[in-house]
Amino acid sequence: MIDAAHIVEITAIVVESINLILAAIYLLPIIFNPRFHNVNNLLTANLCLLTLITATYWIIDYILHGFFAASFRNTVLLRVFFQYWETLVNCLALYGFVTISVNRCFAVVYPQKRFFKKLSWCFISAGIQWMLGFILPIPVFVGTYMVYLQGNPLLVPWLGPYIFFVVLVIPAVVFVISNGIIYFTVRASSRRVHTITENSSGNFSIERLSSRDIRLLKHMVFVFIIYLTGWSPIYIAAAAGLTRGMPDWLYYLLELPAGAFMQGKLLWTLTWIGPYEFFIVLVVPAVIFAISNGIIYFTVRASSRRVHTAAASISGSSTTECLSSRDILLLKHMVFVFIVYLTGWSPVYIAAAAGVTNGMPAWLYYLLELPAGVSFMILLLDLLWYNHEVRQYLKEKFVRWLHIQ
User: Fold this and answer.
1) Domain range spanning residue 28?
2) What is the Cα–Cα distance from 15 to 9, expressed in whole angstroms?
3) Measured between alpha carbons, how far is residue 377 from residues 30, 372, 380, 384 in Å?
4) DSSP secondary structure code for residue 206 in this structure
5) Can you give the pLDDT at residue 241?
6) Range with the lowest mean pLDDT among 272-276, 285-289, 333-337?
7) What is the count of structural domains for the chain?
8) Pairing of strands 280-282, 319-320
9) What is the DSSP string of 166-178?
10) Alpha helices in 110-210, H assignment, sequence order
11) The pTM is what?
């Protein structure tokens, strides 16, 4: 008989399979088409590769823990190994997304720096991201091994909050800051152009957000909301310790959006593993995301203001400063992406960091993990939607295939 836990688990496997297909569709054109070989697309390809690895791990993890749990739990070293790789793949995927945000921040703030347009910079930033992904989860491996060796979960009371901060909080903060810098930079550029135009025409100008600023802001907000929505539930619940005794079906449902399956693992029985994972999975990416997006926003904003002021000076008219439509779009998009990120990854890591996952029913824990996978799927679709070149290429290939059929 299939219970609620298996239903949520099957749903999670379907979500991760969709992520696997989307990542492959996005990755192949970038690899095999030379015209897509630039820094932005290669970093996106890196994220797609990480998504393939992460989705594959999650599918295997769901199958082992959901359908072969009895035999799996008897193998101590295998459980420790999966505990480490669980945090590893989550960090790799989230930090890959943060790397794209930071790279965009550098491109907007330093448009004349050729180094940030070279492939060497692409490989350096991707290498740093991979290095952090392997190093940050090491305390999880050590802590779980110590507990299995000593048989005392209280030896590692900080791991839950640590995972919560590293996986959820830090990437979110970095994403917000980097996109904020991008937004204000673009905003400043728009203001300069608008001011020059107004001065040339001699018209009185009232500064406001341009349509480009509004679109950019909406996109950033959209991506951030998806990120929070997908990754927050399972990590918040885990960091808060709510997953202990949680029913299987609820655990699967929480885990599904992020694709991070954690039911039946030692992580949430330790008092410090939850906070540790909360820190590396949630806090660190959030901090980087916030910083990079903040820099982007303020840089764009300053650029828009300079352009608008110049145009007003030429025309001799006075200007009243207000957000342009482009600034509004950029800001909205940043906020949306950040909210999606936190909403998806926070619940399970917060629950683990708070130590409430011990004894949580499996269904409730799965439910906390569910939003993370969904949020990552939305982020992939968002990246594809705003990559007009690759999207147009795939559209042409699809239309051509339909005509052939």
Assistant:
1) 4-404
2) 10
3) 19, 9, 5, 11
4) E
5) 64
6) 272-276
7) 1
8) unpaired
9) HHEHHHHHHHHHH
10) 119-135, 138-150, 159-167, 169-201
11) 0.69
